[in-house]
Amino acid sequence: MPLQNRVTPLGELVADRARGLVYGNRGCLHDDEQRIRRSWQVKRWIACRLEFKGRTRELMQPGRYTELFFLDEATAFAAGHRPCAECRRPDYDRFVGVVGMRADAIDECLHAERLDSSERRLHRASAAGLPNGAFVLDEGQPWLVLDSELLRWTPAGYAERQPRPDGETTLITPPTLVDVLRSGWQGDVDFLHPTARQPNVDPGGAGSF
Question: Taking a C-beta distance cutoff of 8 angstroms, is the pair 157, 70 a contact?
Answer without folding.
Answer: no
